[in-house]
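Below is a filled-in request sheet from our internal design queue. Each sheet records the structural input a requester submitted and the sequence that came back. We keep these sheets so that new team members can see what a complete request looks like end to end.

REQUESTER: design group, bay 2
PRIORITY: normal
MODE: inverse folding
CHAIN LENGTH: 472
BACKBONE (tokenized):
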């Protein structure tokens, strides 16, 4: 006899999600993850396959990400001011699915024999189109879905796990496949173009799967009564300037913003550091695929245990332990930087302890949105997510700039047969020492995040307000 499906979670909040909803939602995150992680490979592609100067590449990546950051805030405000109920969160995905696929392929079609200025302009424009325009216009409303799709923190956590699987799976796909596949195809720019076309078709298919499920979904938050809270009307929009003031007066939102900013820096550096490390420290860039393959099993274990760990420790402790564990693992590499076993073991363990943390990005944003609702009687859903995206994009730009700065300080030269001592030190710097510092900053910063224990009472107060307003 089939087990009856629960209708409410432990807090009495109505459950709305099915397995196919989680899987379709994950496909959207997987497509976005491929686009985002692909950008992380571009620094290596530009320097070692096109021959662009390290400084020029760093400037391109930084400008693209910083300009991209402002589009998140602007577009988040547009979404909050738009009408259309559930439809508005997925209409951009279907409109931009084909352009998204096209720009993925175009990223690799840099005119190799063109002038330095032409290559710089092409790289800058394609990066802006990918991240500042297309990615942002899909990801901003999509990130808001986690908040409005369900009120249940349990289901939000499950969505976070599935999305983290999608995002991390995209990273694993790019890390494992990029170097060996392009090398197998000849290792030339033409090989990277062929690889990009295949990824473009995958991105298109994944977006179509996500949209097909999402645009038909009924969002309980919008149209059903739950636990006596009453039906929830569509929120009146708040002008841009007052909305930003509200967000910056929400200390929990500021913490989440800084948290996203700092983690984006580490992610941007990590996306390229493995390739540089394997090529120049261990002498074989194909080792990236081997390390990625070894990490696949650890990743599966990490996602299996994520939900129990989060349930046991709670949101705040999961983040704190994840940051501390990652810092310790990076510190171990500092004492044996040329030992392959130590590098692999510490990297895999560091990723493993941070996987539960990765599942909580959307949950943390949703908690900050709930606090907005209590404090201002305004959720500012898309604006909150868009402004958090601002932190992600600025962080990514800063990460790319930091990576380029380390390489410049190390007098990096991709045409050499072996790394010079200064090149090796620069690679140790951004691969081993920087993660220690950044993860400890996040650890101490997040110790003041005490919203988790306050949230149930705040929600009860919001429910009482709404019930009182409906009686009047």
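RETURNED SEQUENCE:
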């Amino acid at each position: 006899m089939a087990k009856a499906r629960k209708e409410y979670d432990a807090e009495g909040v109505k459950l709305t999600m099915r397995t196919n909803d989680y899987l379709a939602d994950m496909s959207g995150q997987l497509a976005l993850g491929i686009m985002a992680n692909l950008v992380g490979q571009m620094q290596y592609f530009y320097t070692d396959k096109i021959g662009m100067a390290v400084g020029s590449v760093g400037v391109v990546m930084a400008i693209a990400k910083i300009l991209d950051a402002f589009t998140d805030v602007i577009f988040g405000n547009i979404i909050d001011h738009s009408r259309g109920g559930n439809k508005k969160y997925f209409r951009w995905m279907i409109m931009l699915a084909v352009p998204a696929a096209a720009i993925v392929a175009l990223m690799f079609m840099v005119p190799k024999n063109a002038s330095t200025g032409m290559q710089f302009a092409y790289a800058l424009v394609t990066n802006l189109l990918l991240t500042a325009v297309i990615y942002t216009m899909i990801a901003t409303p999509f990130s808001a879905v986690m908040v409005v799709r369900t009120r249940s923190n349990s289901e939000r956590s499950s969505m976070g796990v599935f999305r983290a699987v999608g995002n991390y799976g995209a990273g694993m796909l790019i890390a494992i496949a990029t170097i060996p596949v392009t090398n197998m195809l000849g290792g030339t720019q033409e090989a990277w173009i062929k690889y990009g076309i295949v990824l473009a078709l995958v991105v298109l298919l994944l977006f179509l799967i996500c949209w097909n499920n999402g645009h038909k979904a009924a969002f309980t938050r919008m149209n059903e009564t739950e636990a006596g809270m009453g039906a929830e009307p569509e929120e009146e929009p708040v002008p841009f300037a007052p909305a930003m003031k509200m967000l910056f007066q929400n200390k929990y939102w500021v913490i989440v913003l800084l948290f996203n900013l700092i983690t984006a820096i580490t992610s941007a550096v990590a996306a390229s550091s493995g390739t540089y490390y394997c090529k120049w420290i261990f002498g074989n860039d194909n080792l990236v695929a081997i390390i990625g393959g070894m990490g696949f099993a650890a990743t599966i274990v990490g996602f299996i245990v994520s939900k129990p760990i989060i349930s046991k420790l709670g949101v705040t402790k999961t983040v704190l332990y994840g940051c501390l564990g990652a810092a310790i693992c990076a510190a171990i590499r500092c004492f044996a930087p040329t030992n392959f076993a130590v590098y692999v073991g510490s990297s895999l363990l560091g990723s493993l302890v941070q996987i539960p943390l990765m599942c909580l990005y959307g949950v943390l944003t949703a908690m900050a949105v709930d606090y907005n609702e209590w404090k201002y009687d305004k959720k500012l859903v898309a604006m909150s997510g868009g402004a958090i995206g601002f932190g992600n994009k600025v962080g990514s730009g800063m990460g790319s700039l930091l990576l380029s700065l380390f390489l410049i300080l190390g007098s990096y030269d991709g045409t050499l047969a072996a790394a010079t001592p200064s090149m090796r030190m620069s690679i140790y710097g951004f691969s081993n020492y920087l993660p220690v510092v950044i993860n400890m900053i996040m650890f101490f910063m997040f110790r003041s995040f005490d919203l988790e224990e306050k949230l149930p009472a705040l929600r009860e107060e919001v429910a009482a307000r709404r019930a009182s307003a409906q009686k009047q």
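SHEET NOTES:
- Residues 221-231 have pLDDT under 50 and may be disordered.
- The longest helix spans residues 116-149.
FILED BY: M.R.
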